[in-house]
């Protein structure tokens, strides 16, 4: 298959981890005889420095004309420490999500058995956890009207949802539940917020079309508690943009580390694949970032955008086997891991490529 992929390394460790993601794509193309073409574009802090714009027009054009996007991260401490700056790296990411209609953000939280001890949560609570989050990505306070009043002494961000926005992500969540344990947990704050009451009402309506799926509702505060109290009680979780942002960072602890979590953003056209971790400037340039979230994002890209199930499975297996062989990056290494098994970003990439080299491709595909 011939496919065009745009790589958006972005800021901080985004560059380091997408380098490993791309090597995995190249290896998959080689093994399964695909032709992948790559193009690069800028976004975030680097794009601001070069053009004054966090999502230059040239980048957007490239993104609209490719088959899939592999994204790293955006962000820079300069902006975090100065909230008065008007042009910010994150604006590029939000604009990209909106312009490409990427309204559904899938964040699978699956714990590899080998990482049971890497989490701060007890292994007996975690074992067997497998949650698929659907975070709504183009609505909510992220995109509602915002501003300042009263000489700048009052600020507001409007939490707003339209019914169609809830319906379309609701359908995606229910459809996914059909291929899993047939349970959807919708998370809102309907005891307080009007937008959440619209959310809940709409989920109930959508749910009627899926009588085979169990629908439950939880308030976000209680869901945050239950996630770490009993993660196995969740299957598919569907929630708004802000609640989803917060809950999935929390849920990363179920998977051992933020460095393990991949995500797919899909909607109207092209799909975008990225780790859920950020630019992590504290470790940028040290070569120690965990590339597995980017590599697992590649697996989602192959599966969802290209329909390459076998290729995606090969990547996941390679990650699993590498962990079984005892290799770790520092963020997922507990004290029992010997020093020589603690790898850096590129040597972890090497191990994944080594595992992939052992994949047997059926004759029909080679
Ligand atoms: C994420 C990030 C972004 C978000 C930031 C960088 C704007 O935290 O993708 O989860 O809040 O959506
Ligand atoms: Mn986040």
Notable characteristics:
366 residues; alpha/beta; binds 3-isopropylmalic acid; 40% helix; 13 helices; binds manganese (II) ion; Isopropylmalate Dehydrogenase; globular; two-stranded antiparallel ribbon
What does this structure look like?
The chain is globular and about 55 Å long. Helix content is 40%, strand content 19%. The protein has 13 helices and twelve strands. A hairpin with a 4-residue loop joins strand 11 and strand 12 (271-275). It has a ten-stranded mixed β-sheet with strand order 2-1-3-12-11-4-5-10-8-9, sandwiched between helices. The protein has a two-stranded antiparallel sheet with strand order 6-7. It has two domains: 1-103 and 280-366, Isopropylmalate Dehydrogenase (3-Layer(aba) Sandwich); 130-253, Isopropylmalate Dehydrogenase (3-Layer(aba) Sandwich). It starts with a strand and ends in a 9-residue tail after the last helix. The longest helix is centred in the first third of the chain and has 19 residues, at 14-32. By secondary structure, the protein is α/β, with parallel strands linked by helices. The protein has helices at 14-32, 45-51, 57-64, 77-80, 89-99, 123-126, 163-178, 194-208, 220-229, 241-251, 292-305, 309-324, 345-357; strands at 2-10, 35-40, 68-73, 104-110, 130-136, 146-149, 154-157, 183-188, 214-219, 236-239, 262-266, 271-275. The site of manganese (II) ion has 2 residues, from helix 10.
């Amino acid at each position: 298959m011939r496919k065009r992929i745009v790589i958006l390394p972005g800021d901080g460790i985004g560059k380091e981890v997408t380098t490993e993601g791309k090597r995995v794509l190249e290896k998959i193309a080689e093994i399964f005889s695909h032709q992948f073409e790559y193009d690069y574009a800028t976004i975030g802090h680097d794009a601001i420095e070069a053009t004054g714009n966090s999502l230059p027009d040239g980048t957007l054009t490239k993104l609209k004309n490719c088959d899939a996007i592999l994204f790293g991260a955006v962000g820079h401490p300069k902006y975090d420490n100065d909230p008065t700056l008007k042009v910010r790296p994150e604006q590029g990411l939000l604009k990209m999500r909106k312009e490409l209609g990427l309204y559904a953000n899938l964040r699978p939280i699956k714990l590899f058995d080998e990482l049971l001890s890497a989490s701060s949560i007890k292994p007996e609570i975690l074992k067997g956890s497998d949650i698929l989050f659907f975070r709504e990505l183009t609505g909510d306070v992220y995109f509602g009207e915002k501003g300042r009043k009263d000489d700048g002494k009052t600020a507001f961000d409007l939490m707003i949802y339209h019914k169609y926005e809830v319906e379309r992500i609701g359908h995606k969540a229910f459809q996914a539940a059909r291929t899993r344990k047939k349970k959807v947990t919708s998370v809102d704050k309907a005891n307080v917020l009007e937008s959440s009451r619209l959310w809940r009402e709409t989920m109930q309506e959508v749910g009627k079309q899926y009588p085979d799926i169990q629908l439950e509702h939880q308030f976000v505060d209680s869901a945050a508690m239950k996630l770490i109290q009993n993660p196995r009680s969740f299957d598919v979780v569907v929630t708004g943009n802000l609640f989803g942002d917060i809950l999935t960072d929390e849920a990363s602890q179920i998977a051992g580390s933020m460095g393990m979590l991949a995500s797919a953003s899909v909607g109207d056209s092209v799909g975008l694949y990225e780790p859920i971790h950020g630019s992590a400037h504290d470790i940028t340039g040290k070569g120690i970032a965990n590339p597995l979230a980017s590599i697992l994002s590649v697996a989602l890209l192959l599966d969802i955008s290209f329909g390459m199930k076998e290729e995606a499975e090969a990547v996941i297996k390679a990650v699993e086997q590498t962990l079984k062989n005892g290799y770790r990056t520092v963020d997922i290494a507990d004290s029992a891991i010997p020093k020589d098994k603690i790898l850096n970003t590129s040597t972890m990439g090497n191990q994944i490529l080594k595992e992939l080299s052992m994949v047997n491709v059926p004759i029909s595909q080679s």
